[in-house]
Amino acid sequence: MENPAQAVAKLIARLGNPSTTEMRQALVAHLRRVLDEGHASAKDLLAGPRNGLACAERISETMDGIVACLHIAASEHFYQAVNPSQSERIAVVAVGGYGRGTLAPGSDVDLLFLFPHKQTAWGESVVEAMLYPLWDLKLKVGHSVRSIDDCMREARADMTIRTALLEARFLIGDRSLFDEMVRRFGAEVMEGTAPAFTEAKLAERETRVRRAGTSRYLVEPNVKDGKGGLRDLNTLFWIAKYAYRVDDVSELVAAGLFDRKELVMFQRSEEFLWRVRCWMHFITGRAEERLSFDLQRQVAAAIGYAGRSGQAPVERFMKAYFLVAKDVGDLTAIVCAALEARQQKPRASLSRLLGSFAKRKRVRALGHPDFTLKSQRLNVIDDDAFRRDPVNLLRLYEIASRDDIAIHPDTSRLVTQSLRLVTAQLRHDPEANRIFLEILTGRRSPEPVLRRMNESGLLGRFIPDFGRIVAMMQFNMYHHYTVDEHLIRSIGVLAEIDAGVLEIEHPLANEIMPNLANRRALYVALFLHDIAKGRLEDHSIAGAKIARKLGPRLGLSEAQTETVAWLVEHHLDMSTVAQSRDLGDPKTIETFAATVQTLERLKLLLILTVADIKAVGPGVWNGWKGQLLRTLYYETEIVLAGGYSAIERKARVEKKQDALKEQLADWPETERNAYLARHYPPYWIKTELARQEKHARFLRQAESEGRTTATAVETDQFRGITELTILAPDHPRLLAIVTGACAAAGGNIVDAQIFTTTDGLVLDTISVSRAFDRDDDELRRAERIAAAIERALKGEIKIADLVAQRRAPPPRGQTFQLAPEVIIDNVLSARHTVLEVSGLDRPGLLYDLTTAIGKLNLNIASAHIATFGEKAVDVFYVTDLTTAKIVSTARQLAIRRALLDVFAFDHDKPAAAKAKAPVRA
Q: CA distances (Å), 498 to each of 85, 567, 611, in order?
C-alpha cells in the first residue's frame, strides 16, 4: 500500500477542490480497493507460502494503512485545527486482537481514540469522520474514546479493558500521548498485580472453555475460543507479558519461561491456528469460528491435505489440528508451572530447619525415594529421576492415581522431555507393565490419570498402537470425540459402573459388575476396543490381533488375553443386535448366543457395550438403548442356561398369559380367555406385563366405542422416548402411513413393534424420541402426531404431500457422502426375510422406505430403526403376502433396486449405480 499521506494528497489533486461529501465518497471507494487488494494479497500468502500468521499480519497492515488515511483526511482536510490547543491532540491506538498486529478476514477492528483530557468538539468530529467510512466499508469496528486518566481508572476496575490495553499498539497521531499512557499503565496498573491478573485470566479461560466445550478433542472445535485454540495462546502470552514484562513471544526464552523447542511449538501452533482460522473466514465470507463438518472438508482441501493409509484428507487435517490443540495444552501447563514457582513464598526459617525431617516423612508416605511433594503436588526429587530409572515414568502416575495427588506441572514437563527413555526395553519391563495395568484397572477412577499420561505423550509411547490413534477423528456426526479421548472416557464410564455410580441409568451393568471373574480383562478390552481405528483392515479384527500381542506383555494369562481379544473383536455385536434385530425372534437370540457361548462373556460384553455407547458423546446413551440391551441379555441368558426349546417357549407364553389374567381380574373369565386368544406367541414373548395390560384395556375401550382405528400416547422419561400405540385394520401400507404421519409432524421414530391379532387388526407401538423435557409439553406434541396418524389412516389427509412439504433435497456437495447399502438375508430369521437398509439419513427416509416396501407387496412383521449420526440403519423383517420368505433371486433383485431408488435423489448419479448391496440368501 502506498504512503497514506500521498494517497490522500493524490485523491484531492484528482478531484480538484472537492466538497466534503465528494471527498468522503472518493475516499471510501479508494479504501474499498485497498481493502480488497489487501485481502487478495493476504489470501495469496495463505495459498502460496501457506503461512497463516503472515496472512493475518498482512490484513492488519492493510487496516493500519486504511486507518492512517482516514486520520489524515479527518484531521488535515475535514477538520483541520489551525492553532491546536493542548487538548486538541489525538492518538489512534489499535487494541485487542488488532493491537497484536494480526487480523482474520472477518475480525473486529478494535480502536482506542486517546485524548489528553476530556474530549473536545474537534476531537469528536475527527472520531466521527474516521468511523463513518469504516462502517461504510462494512467493517465491524469496536471503538472507545478515552483520556489517559480514563484508561487508568477503567483498567484498574475491568480486566477486559486491562487486557485490551496490555496489547495497545500505536497507529497514528500524537505519539507522546500513547507513550505516556503506556508508561502510566505499567506503573499504575501492572505494578504488583501480576498474581491477580493471572488468576483472573485463568478463571476467564475456564469459563470460556466450558462455554465452548470442555474437551479440546470435540470433533467440531471452536478455533478461536475452544480449548487449545487461539484464545488459549493469547491468554498465555497476556499472562507472560504481564508477569515477565516482555513485548514479543521470542523474549520468553531469555526470560526463562520457554526453552527453544517450546518457543518453536508456540510459534508453530500459532501459525497453524491462524492458517485454519483465515481459511474459515475466506471460505464462509464471515467471521466463522466453529470448525464444522462442512468446513473441515473445505479447509483440508484449501490447505492441501491428501488421503493416506486409510485416512481421508479431512481426517488427516483434523488429526493435525488436535495435535496442535494438545501442544497448546502443554504450553498452558508450562506457563502455569512457571507462574506457580514465581508466586511461591519462601519458607520460614523453622520450616527450613525441619525441612530434612519433613522431606523424609513425605517420601515414606509416597512409597518411593525418587518422589516428593512440592506445593502439595507430586514431584520428582531431581531432574535425573527418570534417567536413573525409566520405570519411574510409570511409577509417577501410579502414585498420583493411588493417592489422588495432582502432578506438579514441572514434572509433567519433564516427562514430555524424557520420552526418549521409553524404549522397547521399558515397554517389555514386567514392573512397568504391572504398574500400567494397575493404573488402568485401579479402584480410583483411572480416567484423569490416563488423560494426563496421554497429554504428556507417555501413553502413546508406552503403548505405540495407542499412539497411532492419538488425536484421530472419525469424520461423522455420531462420534463427538477423537478416538483416544473416546477410549479414555469409556474407561471413566466403566470406573463409574465399577464404583456403583449412576445405577439408575444402567441397573443391570451395575448389578453384574461386582461379581465379574474377569474384571481386569474387561478394563483392558475397553481400553483397546477402538485402538485399530484408521487402518485398512476392519478395526475389530485388527484390534483383536493387537490384544493378543499386548495381553501377555501386560501380564495377562493366556485365558485372559483370549477373553480380551474376543471382546475387542465382538465389541459392536451386542449393540448391533439390540438396536437392529427382532429380539422376539428365537433365531436372533440363538444366533447371538452361539457367538457369545458363555454367561461370563455375555456379562462382560454387556458392560463393555454400555461404557462404549455412553462415551460416544452427550445424549447418545438413553434408557431406550439400555432396555434393548437388557432384553437381549435376559433372552440370551435363557439360551445359554439351556432353555428356549419349543416346550420351554410354550411354558413361558402360558406363564405370561396367566400373569395378565391376574391383572385383568376385573374382567369376566370368558372375556379374558377370548382376549388371550387374540395374540400370537411372539406377542407374549416380546411384550412386558405392564404394556400387555395397557394394550388389553386400550383394545377393550376402542371396541366399546365401536372404533377399529384408535391411538394412545404415553411418555417415558427414563427411556427418553414417547410411545404411540396404534390400533387399525391390517393392510400392507399401514406402517408407511404411520411413519409418514410421524415424519410430517416432526416425530423421529427410534423403534417400531408390530403385532397382528388373530382377528385381523394391527397393534403397533411406535417409539419416537422426546422433543421436550416437560411431560405436558411432550404429551401435547405426541397427541398432535397421533391425531395426524388417525386422520391419515382414515384417508382424511394425503401423507405424501405432507412429507414432501417437510423435506428438501440435500444441497449439492453436501458434507457427508455415504453410499446406500441393502442386505437381504434369509438366515437371520426362521420365518422372515430380513432387509437391512443403510444410507444417509434425511427427513422422510423411513416413510419412503416403508412406502417402497408396501408397493412391493411385502408384509412388515417388525421394524428396527437406528441412527448413527448422519447414517441411518433400518431393518425390516418381511414376508410376501402368503407369509413366506422371499427366496426368488429375481424378486430379491427387484426389492434391492426399489430400496436403492429411495436414495437416488441424494446423489447426482442413480443410487443403484453407486451402492454396494449384497444379497444373503
A: 77, 18, 11
